[in-house]
Amino acid sequence: MSERRRASPGRALDGSPGAALLRLYPADWRSRYGDEMAAVLEARRPGLRDRLDLARGALDAWLHPSRRSALPAYLSLAGGALWTGGAIVVLGQPVPPDWPGYLVDMLPQALLAAVFLSAASIGVWLRLGDGASRFARLALQVALAGHLAWILALGAAILRIDYGPTTAIAATAAALGTFLVAVALLRADDLAIGGLLVAAPIALLVAWAPAWLSFGLAWSVVGLLQLRAATGRPGGEPGVRAG
Questions:
Q1: What pTM value is reported for the model?
Q2: DSSP secondary-structure letter at 6?
Q3: By C-alpha distance, which of 88, 32, 100, 92 is closest to 216?
Q4: What are the extents of the domains in the chain?
Q5: Rg of the Cα trace of the chain?
Q6: 115-154 pLDDT, tens digit each
Q7: Inter-axis angle of helices 107-125 and 209-232, to 10 degrees?
Q8: How many angstroms separate the CA atoms of 205 and 208, rounded?
Q9: Considering only CA atoms, which of 193, 195, 207, 198 is closest in space to residue 175?
Q10: Cβ atoms of 109 and 85 closer than 8 Å
């Protein structure tokens, strides 16, 4: 009997009517609740509404895992490192940056950093949990729209379609979105990451290489804080609530 209880939860799911949907859940969730849920599904065949609830529950389990994922940390670290490296190159030039000038050579790196930081913005927003306020949801929408515009503008600059003002406007939109997400985090008492992300977009908009370096470093520190939480504090951090 003990051998049967130690069997893989995936084996218990194979014969249940909702087995395909239960496989959508993270492995950690299945190992904890899989056998129990499979027994419920065997006792009562799920209808359409039940299947929709299971699918929605799977999405929620991925977005809000019992153990904090390290993926947002790696996205923040990657974006921050790419931007920091580019800023260091700018600082090493014998003359101040101009446009397009030698900054054109750094645009692919900036584009890749913007892609990572777009996803990283979602990662930090998810720290707010299930009860994100209307303001927090609006902040995420502005951040995603702004980062998309920034990515497209950088791509246009790489292709020599457009330079200068368009890129600056798009970067401002991305910075505004990040700033609003940071305010939502501060309202939720997430002071360390919220504080860093309030300062980072301001530094991005300053046409000065040391400020750009600060932007990349701020995101890198955000990544390190997230990584420490993901590896050292299963289940989340105290003091973070929806705001």
A1: 0.72
A2: T
A3: 88
A4: 2-63, 71-232
A5: 22
A6: 999 999 999 998 887 678 999 999 999 999 999 999 999 9
A7: 40
A8: 9
A9: 198
A10: yes
Cα–Cα distances in angstroms (integers) from residue 207 to residues 81, 110, 167, 170, 204, in the given order = 19, 15, 13, 15, 8
pLDDT tens-digit map of 154-172: 999 888 887 778 888 999 9
CA 151 to chain centre: 16
CB 173 within 8 A of CB 181: no
Alpha carbons 234 and 25: distance in angstroms, whole number: 18
d(CA 25, CA 19): 10
Residue type at 112 in one-letter notation: L
DSSP alpha helix (H) spans, the chain: 2-5, 9-13, 19-22, 27-43, 48-63, 71-91, 107-125, 134-158, 165-187, 191-204, 209-232
